[in-house]
Amino acid sequence: MGVRATTANLAPSVAVVGVHGHGASHLRRLAEQQLDGSVRIAAVVDPRPVDGHPDVPDGVRWYADLDQLLADRAPDVVVLATPIHTHLALASAAMRAGSDVLLEKPTVTSMAEHAELLDVVAQTARLCQVGFQTYASHALRVLDRIVADGEIGTLEGIGAVGTWVRTAAYYGRARWAGRRTLDGVAVVDGVVTNPLAHAVATALLLADASRAEQVADVVVDLHRAHPIEADDTSSVVVTTDTGLRVGAGLTVCAPGRSPARVVLYGSHGTATLFYETDDIEVDGRRGRRRIGSTRGDLLTNLLDVRAGRADALCADVASTGGFMRVLDAVRTAPDPAPIADEWLDRRGTGDEAWPVVADVEAWCERAGREQRTFTQLGAPWA
Description:
It is built from 12 helices and 19 strands. With 382 residues, it is of the alpha/beta class. It starts with a helix and ends in a 5-residue tail after the last helix.
């Protein structure tokens, strides 16, 4: 009796798949949660050995692939921090083995894969949370109230702006980095779908267009300054089923990194979410003010739903359908247009080198504010 009770009261077991990149941050967070007894790190999975890995706790078992782990014993939860093109197969295998899943963004590589993943969720009755952290931000409810109260007037459009830097080392870190396809398989690793995917997904969520059927039209305008296949400087215009337009201007070829943001444009002002910090800046009928906020934790939310302490996932697979419509438009678009050298300023050297596109910050700002593409705006390098 005592043994059975102890086993029943064990914290949920969690395994992390892919620990030599972003998965290490999941391990660090899990180590904190393990200290308070809310989880147990059951295993790590990575094709590369983890001996000496600073974030893998002593005594945690290593598996070279997920199938080995699932054949041994499926954990309660599998965290997948693996390349985009592996998401569908790995998430499906974990759920069919009886595990719930925290799946890093982007969800999968096409709308067809998205539909297949939804089918697996339905067939297995397992939970699958997608790693769009801003979906758990408490700032979203604050923004809803600001709009509902009329502080910025009638909502007329939404813009997403991200002007970041990625160096040659970023694209040299893995075979799939910066690729549209790899070995005949879609990868779709561009600025819209990976580094600044949160900007697009958060803007769609605020536009009430997080689900696929809520997106009426997508126009993408893809460019590249790095010597890669995928886009690194792009604009997107989404029209929702209500006619609201969402524009995004995104680049990793800026002179420096600025805070990524989503701006709600109203008839009497604006409300800006700096989604990396969950801070809000409002400029409306009550004047200008700044509001600090916080966010929940996606794994905690998943565990709470498992245990019946919460009703729904913050970022279930269906709620990423709107973003997947954008990803699919990127996937099926013509190859990104190379930006001519005359519009580029080369910075740094070696692995730390990156191109800066002329006036790209201003063009990204306009793409978000006016909900028009770079080409429609007349950017000279487009």
